[in-house]
Each structure stands twice: as structure tokens, then as C-alpha cells.
Sequence to fold (139 residues):
Amino acid sequence: MKKYVGYIIHAALFVFLLYLGSHLNQNLRIATGRTFRPIPMIVFYSIFPIVIGIYLAIPNFIINIRRPGLWKVEWAKFAILGTVSLFLALTPILYFFTPIGQHVPWLIVWLFNFNQGYTIAGILFGYLLLSVPEKISSN
Fold:
């Protein structure tokens, strides 16, 4: 029963986090329209999915913390999946604020035709941040 209550609380907090993100997104759109400064909105588009991914990984991370043993990090998984997903999640920032955006033509196509891609990549990277380190039993 305690397990199900935890799931319900986690789901309710997830919905609340999505509500806060939606509200912040709307306020940033309004502010961008008023000031013509898109920087906060572009940064939000890259960072918020990473926060969502971190939140989704919290239950397993807590289970890992409580487990006895030594910490182990799968560096290959983090280096390969983490680097690619971080790069794709930061695509809006890279495009608008670095020279990379002007020199990588597929980045333009990716950014403007498949904007769910950097959202999914951000969620993956956030999830990896807390799921790659894990405890293994010392036996």
C-alpha cells in the first residue's frame, strides 16, 4: 500500500511540474513578445526537458541510495548516450548563441522541423544523470 501511495504522490508531483513548466513557458513567450529578447525562452526549451528527465529518474536513484554496496558508474553509457543526448538537447542554445549553428546545416533542419527531438534528448540526458551511477553489492 505504501508503494502505491508513493506512486500516486510521484505522479501528482509530475503533473504539478508539468503545470509549472507550462506556466513558465507561457510567461516566457509573453515576455519574449514584449521585449524581443528570446534568450530566456530558448534556454528554457533546452533546460526544462533535462529537469523532467531528472525528476523521472529520482525514484530509482532513491532506491539505489538505500541499497548497500559500492557506487559504480557506467562511463561508456554516459559518454556515448550522454554526449549525444546533451548535444541534441542543447541544439537551440548552440544554434542561436554559438558559431556551431551557422556551420552545421543539418542542425537547422533538426531544430525547425523536429523540435520534439531536442525535448526527447533532454529527457534522456536528465534521466541518464541519475541512472548511470548505481550501487553494486560488495559481495
Remarks:
- Strands lie at 70-73, 133-136.
- The chain has one domain: 2-136.
- The chain has a mean pLDDT of 90.
